[in-house]
Amino acid sequence: LSPGAEMGCFTFIKVMMILFNLAIFLSGGTLLGVGIWVKVDGESFLKIFGTLSSSILQVVNVSYLLIVIGAILLVIGFLGCYGAQKESKCLLMMFFSVVLIIFIAEVAAAVVALVFTGLAETLLTGLVTPLLKEKYGVNDTFTQIWDVTMTEVHCCGLNNYTDFNNSYFFDKYHGYPKQCCGTQEPCNSTVAAEMAVQPHQCGCLVQGCFKQILEEIRTNTGVAGGVAAGIAALEIAAMAVSMYLYCQLDEK
């Protein structure tokens, strides 16, 4: 290409880099704001978005997840947008490094989730089960999130009803959440154990939320794989563009 054509190509890619990362920056700010909103006023959030409760996001603390993702997107968007606008090699390299680290982490997480499902379940159990024992029935927002999740997904606890053994809720009410027993009352260990292994009059089998969500993901493998592939392609493209701009700055 002639010097003029190369300069035009560089300028075009630079503008696209700025606009793309500006969109990421704004998206990160939005997620961060929503995360703070959920943290401060979770009940209002659930009333508005209650129909989305079957999402896998409900298994963990939604507010912290949104805040972390929003903060990461803000950093990425700033580095990419400002780095391209100022033609800063340092910021562009930082952008490339951050996206690369996230890409590697996503690949590792996907391998663990798909190949080592048992390990993923063990890790989640170690993180989520103590929260169920300590916060369910104590923290209103946490309790409501799990109530909606267990109702919509037709599940009980992360693994099964035993996640509530020796918990605040069990000690106070001497039983399990009503979702663990379907329509059977009272929800004691006998009924919960029977509902976990065979369906009753309601025709429902109450298993752990992890198993139910995993089954839902498996039934939608094509969609999940397509979304993951799209995200990976965007990350690879972002790294390639940032490295192109970085290399072009050496020639200017």
TrEMBL record:
Family statement drawn from the similarity comment of this UniProt entry: Belongs to the tetraspanin (TM4SF) family.
GN (gene name): Tspan1
Full protein name: Tetraspanin
Subcellular location: Lysosome membrane; Membrane
Organism in which the protein naturally occurs: Peucedramus taeniatus
Taxonomic path: Eukaryota, Metazoa, Chordata, Craniata, Vertebrata
Matches recorded under SUPFAM superfamilies: Tetraspanin
Keyword Membrane: yes
Quaternary structure and interacting proteins, as annotated: Interacts with SLC19A2. Interacts with NTRK1/TRKA.
Membrane topology annotation: Multi-pass membrane protein
Matches recorded under InterPro entries: Tetraspanin/Peripherin (IPR018499), Tetraspanin_animals (IPR000301), Tetraspanin_CS (IPR018503), Tetraspanin_EC2_sf (IPR008952)
